[in-house]
Amino acid sequence: MTTRTVDTTQELAAFLRSRRERLDPDDFGLPSRRRSRRTPGLRREEVAELAGVSIDYIVRLEQARGLRPSVDVVEALAGALRLAPDERAYLFDLTRQRPRNADKLATTAAAPLARLVADLSPLPAMLLNHRYDILAWNDEMARLLVDFGTLPPSRRNSMWLCLKHPEIREFYADRERVVREGIAHLRAAWAAHPDDQELTDLIAEFTTDEEFARLWAERDVKVNGRGRKVMRHPEAGPVEVWFEVLTPLQDPDQLLVIYRAADDESQSALDRLFTTPRRIAGMVDT
């Protein structure tokens, strides 16, 4: 499916509205005479006052009427809307006020990073780009998740696997949280790469999935650099891992993902998994 690239004017309007509507007027100590309201969140005039801009300016932004806020205005809006750091970065991306890397987008693994992924064994590791395409992986990551080498290149994408792969769909104990966090990260990448048609097409494909479409519409934005995942592995049983996502300075669009066992039981399960010969279609792969 082919769609247009990011319409940042429309997305900026929708994002500002969604962030304004989630705010609780009681948190701002507004006079009671202002708090008789039928719609959720702050009014436009309240955001305008907090940001130090005119009401008309907020109206025009939320109606996608082609304004491009200055850096100072973006800062003021981020403060008025009490944006989290990742949401603030997203707002700067939408308004084209954050410097961008003009280099070609990463579609293959940088050779030093591919070697590093291999050298990280026995820790499961893989290399992604901003689209979540899996560019490189070591044997442990393939054994833990799926044999990426058996997949068509177009399906070596961690979000696609989580949404569509029959085994990975049931792999995570807290599936909705994993998907939600992945979508929040993907939305940040979407704003940071508005001219990446392949990414836009990928998101268009994903939105045919009811779960993805529902969570995407919430407009959560979060770049999740570390956390934990609980897995239900068909061979190893329950496995809990801590993950770390690192961004190389030389290749900022490539993400190095490393898993570590979260407890002794999970480490023992991984040790058994990685030392047991893999069984494929009734044969033992040694």
Low-confidence stretches: 280-286
Can you write the helix and strand succession as a string? Answer: HHHHHHEEHHHHHEEEHEE
Quick one: overall form? elongated
Strand order of the largest sheet: 2-1-5-4-3
**What is the count of DSSP helices, taking H or I runs of 4+ residues?**
12
Distance between the termini: 41 Å
Mean pLDDT equals 88
Biggest beta sheet summary = 5 strands, antiparallel
Question: How would you concisely characterize the structure shown here?
Answer:
With 286 residues, the protein is of the alpha+beta class. The chain has two domains: 8-94, lambda repressor-like DNA-binding domains (434 Repressor (Amino-terminal Domain)); 111-285, Beta-Lactamase. Helices cover 42% and strands 14% of the residues.
Please describe what this structure looks like.
The chain has 286 residues and is an alpha+beta fold. It has two domains: 8-94, Orthogonal Bundle (434 Repressor (Amino-terminal Domain)); 111-285, Beta-Lactamase (2-Layer Sandwich), CATH 3.30.450. It is built from twelve helices and seven strands. α2 (44-51) packs across α3 (55-62), α2 (44-51) packs across α4 (71-80) and α4 runs antiparallel to α5. It is elongated. 30% of the residues are buried. This is Transcriptional regulator with XRE-family HTH domain. GO terms for molecular function: DNA binding. Residues 41-88 form the HTH cro/C1-type domain. InterPro entries: Cro/C1-type_HTH, Lambda_DNA-bd_dom_sf, MLTR_LBD.
